[in-house]
Each structure stands twice: as C-alpha cells, then as structure tokens.
C-alpha cells in the first residue's frame, strides 16, 4: 500500500470524519444578543417595579435562553413562537386599560367576548390546548411505536412541541392576568398546586424532547407522556372539583424572589425523575419480554439504562440547587435554613435516595432491572414529597393544601 | 475505589486500619444514606415538639413512654439521630482522606508505564496494523489528541512508543468538592444545631424550665447569657409598646431563656390586607437598643424581610393578641334575666364572678379585629365578608368545666336580617355552633333581652295568659277555672323558656296522656296547647315592643319574633349563665418574633456552593484516558516497508455509553489517519474491565 507523497509532508492536516464539536457561531451570538436586547426592552418597560434580584433574574434568563439555543437550537423556535404569541396577547390585553389593572369581572368579560382569547390566548384556553395536545400525543406515540411508523412518531413529537408552546403561552398569559385582576395580586404562576402542575407538565415534556433529540429515538414518548397525562388528569380533576384555576393573591410567605427560582429548579428535578421512572418502566417491560432483539421497537436496554442515569444525574444536580435555594429562602422567611419541616425533610429523603442510586451505579457498577425498579421507586418517593406531603402532613409550607 | 479495597491483601491489619476501611466502604455509605432517609420520615409523620400532654392523650401512657424514650418527639436532635449524621460526616471525611491524595496524583499522571497486556485487557481496546513510519504515527496521533482536547505525552521504551493522553481531570476535583462540600455543610449544620445546648443540659449546666412563668421569675439555671451558644433559634412574643430582651428556646418539654445583648421594643404591629380580606403582609415596627452602647435602631420587619443585627437575625413569625381591653355587657340569662352589668376584661387575663352562689371565671383568650369568612353573594357567587371584631373567651364553672365562646361585636347581615353571633365550642377542638340572636331596629340586642326577660317574668306571663283567656271565653263566669287555666298556660310558657320547644312538646304530651287522651283528640289538644302558648308568646312580644316605644308592627318584627323563639329554644343548652355582649375594645396586639444566631450558616452556604459546583463537574466533565502503543512488527517481504502494530485503549471513569461512541470515533479516525488495518487477533480477555457490566 503506497502513500501519496503530499500526505507525507510535515504539518499534515487530514480531513476528519469526526463529528465537529459545536463551536459558537454567528447565529448563536446573534441569538444571545437578541435575547439580551429583548430583556433590555422588558427592563426599560418595567424597571420601576424591579429590584436587583428581579433585574438579575431577567438578564440571567436571557443569557440562559442564549445558552439553551446554542446547545439545543430547536428551542429558539419555541422561544420565538412563545414570545411572539405572548407579546401579542399582552398587547391585546393592554387594550383593556391604560395602566392594566381592570379587575376580575372586566377581565372575564373581555375573555368571554373576544374570540381569540376565549379559544386561544387566555391562560385557561391555552392551558386546555396544552392538555389536549399532550393527551393526544400519548396514543400517537404508542400506536406509532407499535406500528413502527416513523411519520407517526414525528407527529407525536410535533404534538408535544405544540403542547409545550401552548403551556408557556398560558403561563405568560396567566402571569399577566394576575396583574390585570389587581396589581397587588400579580405573581409568577408557580405559587400553588394548580400552577405547579402545569409547570411540571411543561418542564417534563420539554426535557423529554431533549432526550428524544439527544438519543435520536422517539419510541419512549408514549411512556413519558403517560406520566404527564396522569398529572394533567389530576389537574383537570382539581380544576373542575375545586375551582383551583382561580387566580388568588399570594400569602405573605410566598411573596419572595426566592420562589421564582426555587420552584422551577425543583421542577426540573421532578421532571427528570419522572422521565427516569417511565424509562425504567419501559426497561422492565422490555426486559421481561426477552430483552434486546434484532427488531426492537424500543431502544436497547443499554440506552434506556443510560437515559435513566442521565436524567437522574441532571435531576439530582437541579434538585440539589433547588433544595439549597429552598434553604436560603427559609433562612429569610422562617428564621432558619433548615427546620426539618415535612416538605423540607421529604426533599432530603428524595435527594438521599437518588444519591444512593448514583453511588450504587457508579461505584458498584449496578445496572439493569434493579436500577430500573429503583428509578420507579424513586418516583413514588418523589411523588410523595411533591403531593403526599401536602395532602397528609402539615407543616410550614403554606401552598398547595388539597 | 472499592476494587482497591477489595483487592487489598488479606493480611492482619490493625484495628485502626480496619475501622478506616469500614468507614470508607461504599456499603456503609449507602446504608447511612438509606438509614438517614428512613429515620427522617419519623419526624414528618409524627408532629414534632408538641406539648407532652398532647402526645399522652394521643398515644396513651404506654406508647408515650416508648416514643419518649426513643426521643421521637424531637427526633432530629435526639442523640441517635445526631450519631447517624456524625457517622455520615465521618464516613464522607474518611473517603475524602483516602481518595483525595490518590485523585490529585492521578490527575497529574499520564500513566506512561501502561503495559501492552493491560492495554489489551481494557474494555475499550483495539489493535491496528500500519505501514507508516513510527514518527509519523506518533505525530498524527498527537495531532488527533490535540484536536480532541486531550493532553498527551509520548515515551519511547525498548523500540516501542507509548502515547498517553488524558482530559477532564476537573471531574476528580468535582469528587473532592462534592464530598468536601457535604462535610462542610454537616459541620455548619452541627454548629447551629441544639447539640451543644443539649450537652449543657445533660451536664446539668442548664436546666429546662417547664412552668409558664414571667421571665423575671425563671430561675438563673435556665438562663443563658449571650454568647454561650454559638448558634440558637428562639422565639418571643412581645405586645405592642412593650419590650423584651430574651428569646425562648424550646427544649424537651419546656424551654430555656436566651438573654439577648439588646432590647427589642415593639412600636406597632400591623397587618396589610388584599381587597379579598386575605392578609397581604405582617409587619412589626421595632426599636432595638443595644445594652452596651445604647445605640438604637428602628425598622419594620416583615415576613421574608428580617432584621439583622450583629449576627442576630430577627424574623416576623407569628402574631397574637397582646392583651386587648374589652368592654362588655354581661346579660343575665338566668335569674334576673334582662339585667345587664357593664364590665371590662383583658385578653389573657381571667376575671371571676359569682352567680346564684356559684363561682365562675371568664378567661378572655383572644380578640380578633377582622373575621373574614367566605359567604355566598346575592347572585350565588363566592364572596368574602368581614364579620367585624370578635372576642374569644372561656366560661369555667366551679367544677373546672369550661365552654369556649366567640362573640361578635356587631350584628352580621344574613339575607337582610341582622344577628349577633355567638359561637360556642363545648370540647377542645370540637365543632363550633352558633347562636343567632336577632338585632332590633336600633341594631341592638336590647329588644331580644327585654323579650326574654318578659318571658321569664311569671307574673307578667300569667297576666297575659289571663287576658288571653278573658278575651276568648266571653262568659267570664268561672273565675277559678280561668285562673287555673291561666296558670297552666303560664306554666307551659315557663317550660318553653326552661327547656325549649322540645321540652314544651314533651310536657304537653305527658299532660295529655295523663288526661287519658289519645289519637285524634290528643292531636287536637296538642295543637291547641301550642297555639295558646304561641299566642301568649306573641302577646308578650307585642307588649315588649310597646314598652320599647314601637307601635307599627311590620313583617320584620314578625321575623324577629320567630328568630327570637329559635334562639330561646337553644338557650337552655348555652351553659353560661350570662351572655357577654361586647361593646368596645382597645386593640393591643403582640408580635411573635423568631430570633436566631447561626454562625454555621456561612459554612452551610459555602459547602452548598462546593457541593453544587462539584456535582456539575462530576456529571458533566468526563475524565478520560486514551493510549496508543506503537510497536514495530517486522517488514513486508515484497517492498521492505516496516509495519507497526498499534494498540489503542481508553477508559472513562464513568462507564456510560457515551464513551463507547467517543472511543469508536477516536479509534476509527486514528485508523484512517494512520492508514491502518484492524487486527482481529486481539487476545481474548476474560475480565474486560475488572467490574461487572450487566
Ligand atoms: C453525604 C452525601 C454524599 C453525597 C451527596 C455524594 C454525592 C456523590 C455524587 C453526586 C457522586 C457522583 C455520582 C456520579 O457521577 O454518578 C459521588 C460519587 C462518589 N462518592 Fe459520594 N456522596 C456522598 C457520600 C459519600 C460517602 C460517604 C462516600 C464514601 C464511602 C462516597 C464515595 C463516593 C465515591 C467513591 C464516588 C465515586 C467517585 C468517582 O469515582 O467518580 N460518597 N458522590
């Protein structure tokens, strides 16, 4: 085998077959700048009612979206669509009154009488769209997986993407509506059980979409969206039996900047733990049915194992942050960073459980069905921390009593 | 890590080294994490730090004793729980001590002494055959490593060349940060915990006080001078315009008193409300005076906005009544009904009175300025209505039996009719039942009381009854029969007043039965008796109205009459011999402050920062090594080109599938760039990794 001469010279620079690592390109920079400019415009509008923390959060969020667009370009579309529609809704809402606040009755009347709001843009309508789209994605994913329909799976993804967009639109609408009802009520909608269930659904779906892209496999969509569907079923029950969707003012303990970041960080944790558990379910099912084979519908066991690890790792990291933020908030609100309040304690239990899971996997090399079952068990513990504590135990955490 | 421990030679070792091995074992770590999780559950299902009496009632003496011995009523500061935490601290520290030097050495080393055999034994290992000269292979490999972000070193030995590369050493730093962070958090937490105070208590330096005493009377052994405890969490209630200079720290079934180096005077406590009547914020305006320097500081504390002073933090945590003064009319409900006495009381103070030779006490327990309740609006929508101020008090009889009342100052409007509300709770935690006393045209309770007095006035009732009979029986022939009929009617009215409609109904039935009436006749007799009583009540009511100067009888008065009878029929069960009609108040609130000192907080936050950074490094920085061993492998017979055998191997601290892909990509690219052929004759390897990979 002879070697061409020109390749022998020094400074040999071969063309490479390696996937090039993602560099920061012009678009990435422009996008981040656009996000910062948008934040700047927002700041100039609302600077009067923002303190340092809020300003920091705003620009931090802009940088975060810039970063997210870099590691996951598809989110730029999501950001753009959500921003455009939400801004449109905000602008239409402004028609109501010069300084915004119009009261509950006038707001309700406007939403009833305006077609676009009644059926799309009001937080209620948008949330219902999200619910419907997420519900629809479940059978779509399952049937397409069974039928091996690539097209059907893509439809499933499209449904989830649209549902996420509607969820965010509803979220921003609701945020604005709370101010429209009464400026004193205004708050980011992460303050009660109803609101955080929506956050859970959106965050879990979005995280799932990330893994779907990362592993280039959509066949786990049905499983993950199933748990989201269960959560939304609860949401509907809660809404129809308890009027939980009514926007209420915040209790004093929740009037804090910490809430804005503590709650979302928690839900990245809850979302990933839920994903890990549902992938665990798929793992156990596949394992029981004979494991990997040549014509699999589901990803290989090794991949599903890996997804569980990745999800739990991400969740653990964010859950750690959330718990620390919670402690810092408690230090400010209750007079101590750790009071062994039931919610706090259960957060610790969840955390310890996943710490044990990670150690088992990492240092003992445990893999397979045991870890899958443990992921599932982890979700049971997490659910109790999320819901059970509010339902059965009393404590200082003041929101979300059922 | 563990594999090292497992492969340690089984020679006899000292106790210390065995203890160390045990402390650093993963099994212990996982056991500790699990035990801690399980033990933590206890305190979430069993309410912590409640009065011991409550537990006794709930669990009975046997289980109370068991739980008490195990310390389950304050489980998070009980000895055995702290021991678990200390073990976790020890275990994590031991792991750190063992691993840190190795890790630090490891991330600086390139492992240039790797042998061919061991490289072939890696889970990720391939062999190539290349015709390029050795220097060229070395150069291209180095180029590839540099492009992939690896640091590489080459070493020649006995004609062969080994290139070793690594990246992601920060991952190991991440391990150190994570676990050191945990240690720092635990230490910080322990500094602020009750551990030291409990030790002082066990040693007898500090005594727990269980009696409810004024601060000045708490014995010196239960006082802690400032600075004795590094960290503490206490609380104190201070009424408006009063001051306090201590905090109470709950311990066991009592408390100890932490003296503070400053005085806190509460100038004002106020609540701000939303338009729904829900509280929006709780605020205390306080003035702090330093006892040493005399320096003062005035600030408003709100929930989420504490006051920080020289390491002390003062938080708004609760509020209550600080001894509001209540003016009230005590209306007699028995004996001389209809008479009242204007009295005064103070919340948190008792006053006793005597009634019919019996001693009673009224204990005022609370006053609330607002009582916002959900009500149904006229269109059926949900609304919140403020019922106005109310006072809560207990009336205790000589036997010690008490019933709790909550009486409202102003009448409350229900569908256009106004009532004075009095809620009574017979047993602690029981259901509150309400008395709806109709208000008269002047929004006062007087008409009702006058009417009630009239019904208790036997003479008046007998007179009214006689008048009634006189009118119905035109032939007033039999004087005696008339007066006996009047007497029996008036008796029935007394029965009604004493026992309500149900009592009346019983008495009537009894009398009819005595007369031997049954069936249709009894029914008619019953109806007429009721009608007669009703007429007497109505006449008595009309007379009352006239006495009040009311001539025009309206539908409202008729409703009042019915409502009044409804109240009277339950008054016999009202227990208290007086009705407290509050008339005026001076609202004095007290604020509940939480006062803390937590020097450990800095460490907890520092540890948290380390933990967070460490976790991200552990998860998202991959610690990887790659090796290329280049060995001469003879020459071709045809053209004399020398061959080289390449042994390529790699490891990742995490055995995740990403590395499968990364290694495949790297080795394929290396194969391409060195124009190699894959050699399939890699010696089979029984134990690929040294660790099971299921
Ligand atoms: C106190 C609570 C602890 C926490 C929060 C914690 C956290 C972690 C985390 C997040 C990892 C990384 C797991 C991964 O990358 O998948 C890890 C790894 C590890 N932990 Fe812990 N750990 C704790 C206690 C301990 C203890 C007590 C030990 C000692 C027995 C220990 C030994 C290790 C070891 C050896 C590793 C593997 C490091 C490596 O090879 O990369 N940990 N720990």
Concise overview:
The complex is a heterodimer of chains A (402) and B (694). Chain A is mainly α and 402 residues long.
Question: Any key phrases for this structure?
Answer:
heterodimer, A: 402 residues, mainly alpha, globular, disordered N terminus, B: 694 residues, alpha+beta, seven-stranded antiparallel beta sheet, six-stranded antiparallel beta sheet, 27 strands, disordered C terminus, binds protoporphyrin IX containing FE
Q: What does this 3D model show about the protein?
A:
The complex is a heterodimer of chains A (402) and B (694). With 402 residues, chain A is mainly alpha-helical. The N terminus and C terminus of chain A are likely disordered. With 694 residues, chain B is of the alpha+beta class. In chain B, strands 14, 15, 18, 19, 20, 21 and 22 form a seven-stranded antiparallel sheet that branches. In chain B, a hairpin with a 2-residue loop joins β6 and β7. In chain B, α5 packs antiparallel against α8, α7 crosses α16 and α12 packs across α13. The radius of gyration of chain B is 44 Å and the shape is elongated. The N terminus and C terminus of chain B are likely disordered. Chains A and B meet through α11 and α12 of A and α3, α7, β8, β11 and β24 of B.
The helix/strand series of chain A, from N terminus to C terminus, equals HHHHHHHHHHHHH
Residue runs with pLDDT of under 50 for 5 or more positions of chain A: 1-11, 398-402
Range of helix content of chain B: 40-55%
Mean pLDDT of chain B: 86
What percent strand of chain A?
A: under 5%
Q: Which outline of chain B best applies? A: elongated
Unreliable residue runs of chain B: 1-6, 682-694
Quaternary organisation of the protein chains: heterodimer
The greatest interface here is:
A-B, 63 and 73 residues
- Terminal residue distance of chain B: 19 Å
Q: Please, what is the average pLDDT of chain A?
A: 87
Number of helices of chain B: 16
* C-alpha Rg of chain B (nearest Å): 44 Å
The class by helix and strand makeup of chain B works out as: alpha+beta
By DSSP, the count of extended strands of chain A is 0
DSSP helix fraction of chain A: over 70%
Count of alpha/pi helices of chain A: 13
């Amino acid at each position: 085998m002879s070697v061409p001469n020109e390749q022998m010279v020094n400074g040999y620079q071969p063309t490479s077959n390696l996937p090039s690592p993602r560099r920061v390109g012009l678009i990435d920079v422009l996008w981040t700048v656009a996000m910062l400019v948008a934040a700047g415009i927002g700041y100039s509008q609302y600077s009067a009612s923002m303190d340092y923390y809020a300003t920091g959060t705003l620009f931090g969020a802009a940088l975060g979206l810039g970063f997210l667009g870099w590691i996951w370009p598809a989110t730029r579309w999501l950001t753009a669509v959500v921003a455009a529609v939400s801004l449109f809704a905000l602008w239409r809402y402004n028609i109501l009154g010069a300084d915004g606040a119009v009261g509950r009755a006038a707001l309700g009347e406007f939403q009833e009488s305006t077609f676009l709001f009644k059926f799309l843009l009001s937080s209620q309508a948008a949330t219902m769209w999200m619910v419907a789209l997420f519900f629809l994605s479940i059978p779509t994913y399952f049937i397409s997986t069974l039928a091996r329909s690539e097209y059907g799976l893509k439809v499933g993804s499209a449904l989830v993407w649209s549902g996420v967009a509607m969820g965010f639109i509803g979220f921003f609408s609701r945020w604005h509506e709370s101010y429209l009802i009464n400026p004193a009520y205004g708050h980011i909608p992460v303050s009660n059980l109803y609101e955080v269930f929506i956050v859970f659904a959106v965050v879990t779906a979005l995280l799932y979409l990330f893994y779907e892209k990362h592993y280039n496999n959509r066949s786990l969509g049905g499983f993950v969206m199933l748990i989201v569907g269960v959560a939304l079923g609860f949401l509907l029950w809660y809404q129809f039996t308890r009027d939980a969707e009514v926007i209420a003012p915040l209790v004093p303990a929740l009037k804090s900047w910490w809430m804005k970041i503590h709650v979302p960080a928690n839900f990245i944790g809850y979302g990933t733990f839920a994903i890990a558990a549902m992938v665990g379910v798929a793992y156990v099912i596949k394992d029981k049915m004979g494991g990997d084979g040549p014509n699999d519908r589901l990803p290989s066991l090794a991949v599903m194992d890996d997804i569980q690890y990745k999800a739990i790792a991400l969740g653990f990291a964010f859950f750690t942050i959330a718990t620390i933020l919670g402690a810092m908030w408690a230090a400010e609100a209750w007079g101590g960073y750790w009071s062994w309040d039931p919610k706090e304690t259960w957060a610790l239990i969840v955390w310890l459980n996943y710490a044990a899971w990670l150690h088992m996997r990492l240092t003992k090399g445990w893999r397979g069905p045991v870890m899958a079952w443990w992921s599932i068990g982890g979700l049971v513990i997490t659910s109790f921390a999320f819901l059970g504590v509010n339902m059965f135990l009393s404590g200082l955490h003041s929101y979300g009593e059922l | 890590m563990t594999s090292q421990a497992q492969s340690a030679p089984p020679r006899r070792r000292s106790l210390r080294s065995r203890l160390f091995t045990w402390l650093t074992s993963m099994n212990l770590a996982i056991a500790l994490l699990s035990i801690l999780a399980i033990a933590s559950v206890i305190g979430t299902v069993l309410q912590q730090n409640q009065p011991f009496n409550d537990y006794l009632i709930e669990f009975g003496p046997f289980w109370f004793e068991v739980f008490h011995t195990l310390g389950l009523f304050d489980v998070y500061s009980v000895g055995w729980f702290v021991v678990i935490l200390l073990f976790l601290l020890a275990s994590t520290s031991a792991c750190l001590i063992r691993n840190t030097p190795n890790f630090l050495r490891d991330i600086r080393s390139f492992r240039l002494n790797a042998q061919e055999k061991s490289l072939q034994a890696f889970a990720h290992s391939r062999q190539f055959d290349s015709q390029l000269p050795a220097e060229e292979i070395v150069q291209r490999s180095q180029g590839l490593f540099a492009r992939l972000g690896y640091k590489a070193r080459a070493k020649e030995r006995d004609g062969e060349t080994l290139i070793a590369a690594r990246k992601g050493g920060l991952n190991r730093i991440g391990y150190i940060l994570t676990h050191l962070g945990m240690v720092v958090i635990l230490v910080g937490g322990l500094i602020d915990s009750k551990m030291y105070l409990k030790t002082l208590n066990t040693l007898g330096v500090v005594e727990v006080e269980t009696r409810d005493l004024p601060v000045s009377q708490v014995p010196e052994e239960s006082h802690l001078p400032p600075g004795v405890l590094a960290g503490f969490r206490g609380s104190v209630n201070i009424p408006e315009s009063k001051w306090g200079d201590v905090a109470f720290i709950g311990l066991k079934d009592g408390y100890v008193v932490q003296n503070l180096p400053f005085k806190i005077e509460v100038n004002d406590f106020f609540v701000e409300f939303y338009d729904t009547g829900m509280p929006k914020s709780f605020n205390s305006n306080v003035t702090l005076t330093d006892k040493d320097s005399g320096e003062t500081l005035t600030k408003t504390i709100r929930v989420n906005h504490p006051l920080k002073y020289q390491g002390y933090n003062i938080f708004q945590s609760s509020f209550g009544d600080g001894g509001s003064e209540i003016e009230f009319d005590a209306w007699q409900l028995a004996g001389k009904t209809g008479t009242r006495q204007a009295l005064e009381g103070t919340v948190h103070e008792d006053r006793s009175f005597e009634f019919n030779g019996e001693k009673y006490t009224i204990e005022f327990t609370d006053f609330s300025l607002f009582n916002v309740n959900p009500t149904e609006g006229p269109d059926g929508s949900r609304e919140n209505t403020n019922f106005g101020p109310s006072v809560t008090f207990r009336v205790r009889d000589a036997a010690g039996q008490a019933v709790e009342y909550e009486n409202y100052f102003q009448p409350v409007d229900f569908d256009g009719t106004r009532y004075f509300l009095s809620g009574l709770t017979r047993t602690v935690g029981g259901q509150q039942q309400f008395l709806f006393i109709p208000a008269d045209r002047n929004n006062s309770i007087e008409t009702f009381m006058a009417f009630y007095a009239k019904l208790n006035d036997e003479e008046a009732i007998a007179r009214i009854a006689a008048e009634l009979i006189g009118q119905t029986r035109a032939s007033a022939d039999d004087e005696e029969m008339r007066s006996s009929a009047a007497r029996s009617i008036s008796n029935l009215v007394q029965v009604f007043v004493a026992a309500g409609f149900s009592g009346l109904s019983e008495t009537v039935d009894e009398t009819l039965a005595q007369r031997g009436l049954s069936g249709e006749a009894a029914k008619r007799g019953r109806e007429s008796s009721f009608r007669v009583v009703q007429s007497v009540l109505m006449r008595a009511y009309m007379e009352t109205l006239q006495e009040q100067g009311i001539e025009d009888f309206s539908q409202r008065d008729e409703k009042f009459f019915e409502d009044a009878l409804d109240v009277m029929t339950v008054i016999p069960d009202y227990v208290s011999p007086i009705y407290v009609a509050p008339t005026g108040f001076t609202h004095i609130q007290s604020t509940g402050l939480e006062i803390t000192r937590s020097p450990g907080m800095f460490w907890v936050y520092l540890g948290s920062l380390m933990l967070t950074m460490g976790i991200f490094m552990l998860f998202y920085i991959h610690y990887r090594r790659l090796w290329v061993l280049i060995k001469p492998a003879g020459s071709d017979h045809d053209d004399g080109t020398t061959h080289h055998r390449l042994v390529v191997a790699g490891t990742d601290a995490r055995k995740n599938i990403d590395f499968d892909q990364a290694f495949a990509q790297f080795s394929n690219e290396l194969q391409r760039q060195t124009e190699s052929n894959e050699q399939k004759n890699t010696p089979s390897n029984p134990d690929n990794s040294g660790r099971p990979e299921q």
